Amino acid sequence: MPKVVPRLIATVERAQPPHRLLAMLRERGVALERVFLLDSALSGRRDARWSFLAANPYATLTAFGTRIESSQHTASGVTTERFERDPLDALQSAVEAVQAEPNPDAPFVGGAVGVL
What is the value of pTM for the model shown? Predict the structure, then answer.
């Protein structure tokens, strides 16, 4: 898997509702597919600081029992590989294969978002 460099599109100085964040990205011409929001900053808690809004993942991993479908999304299209494996083992391997650039301004870099 290639080295991944997260692309920062915008920073927001104060809390914004998700619909405003999405509108801001659209105004900047960002095509939004497969959007997700990890929200702690809008919760009002004292220890809440970060929210992450992201879209257009470089890869997706879909499991149907032990049947895995792994897709890589690039500018030239999508390539898909199908195989049999424990889905959590496949996810762990996919996450470990990514070498994201460190970012001193973020609490973490890398990982996966999804539904089990």
Answer: 0.68
